Amino acid sequence: MAGHGADKGKSGPASVNVVTANVEQKDLPLDLNVVGNVVANQTVAIKSRIDSAIMEVRFKDGNEVKKGDVLFVLDRRTLEAQLQSLKSNLARDRALLEDARMKYNRAKDLKQKGYETVANYDTAKANYEGQQASVAVDQAAIDSANVQLGYTVITAPIGGKAGTINLTLGNNVKANDTTALVTINEVKPVRAQLAVPQIYLTALRKSMATQMPEVVAMIDNDKNPVQGKLTYIDNQVDAASGTFVARATFENLDERLWPGMFVNLTVRLGVENGVLVVPETAIQRGQSGDYFFAVANGKASKQPVTVQRVFEGMAVIAANVKAGDAVVVDGALTLKDGDAVSVRYPDSPKGDSPKEAPKAEDKPAEKPAELIPLAPAPAEQQPTTDRPTSDKPVPAQH
Questions:
Q1: Which CATH class is domain 13-41+186-353?
Q2: Fold held by 77-150
Q3: Residue ranges of domains in the chain
Q4: Burial zone of 285 (CB within 10 Å; 0-12 exposed, 13-18 middle, 19+ buried)
Q5: Could you report the per-residue pLDDT of 274-325, keeping only the tens digit for each?
Q6: Are 52 and 74 in contact (CB under 8 A)?
Q7: Residue with more model confidence, 11 or 172
Q8: Following CA atoms 10, 12, 18, 20 in sequence, which dihedral angle do they give, to the nearest 10 degrees?
Q9: What φ, ψ does residue 40 adopt, rounded to 5°?
């Protein structure tokens, strides 16, 4: 009769050594980690609105400018001459208006007395009203010239950092040229733009309904995070990528964030209570989706799983398991559904318990053997050797 240690081939298939971990139910911070791109809060490309020449540049590349600061002064001599000509036209037309007014009043009085024909009266009235219109046109031309003259002084419409000056002193400029004179970026505050997967849309909107979520920006080679707030989400999801645009605002008083740079962003949406989590290493990728192996009664069962997110190495899952169930975290590559398993510990590949296979650092250090010097033996007790001895007699010891 076969004993208890019979051949495994007769008693059943060999079990697979695996390492397991328990499914846990816990409260986890709901953080969204994405890469964002820093953009200026406002950007203005400064261009001339008239054709002229640059007479003065009152700032330098990269200067901090305030709203209303004078940046460029253009040549205004031509416009001033045109304005003087328009003022002369206005004075002439005002004199003609006064003459037309007097002729109209005279024709009106004579007509009332019956000494003037209706035709002459109508002509005087038309001349008077026409001259009034001429004066109004002259005044409008002067107002327009004053506006054009104001364009010769170019000021900063916003405060911020000035970029490279593209056209310097003496260059001709054209109205609304394709090349900007300079570009000003507002960097205090500054914004970071990020593309957020659509699965976070509901959580983001819910969080923003009560308060603006905190956002932490990490810069490469800088251990100090930058704190900000999520202030904007787009009104639609991009159907091609399944993401939507969101923007976070940072005070950026120390100007550590710069337009164009990439940063790692963490959006803190709150705390998700009572979620099921397993180590991320338990999740396996398959053609039909993600899965893991649950262990019960010494056997492994393949379970489909939906990974909702990963937080610090723990995967938040939706699966047909409960807290306390064991899942395989090591050894799943050679495992099939229904295989018998033997649970081993991570530090004990033979399946021993921690007591049977203590870690190397838990073993007491062996004390090295103490070396004791040997005293020379008495002459009569000294062992003989095979080496040849001398023919000389050994002197007697007293």
A1: mainly beta
A2: Helix Hairpins (1.10.287)
A3: 13-41+186-353, 48-74+152-179, 77-150
A4: exposed
A5: 889 999 999 998 888 899 999 988 899 998 998 888 888 888 888 888 888 8
A6: yes
A7: 172
A8: -150
A9: -65, 145
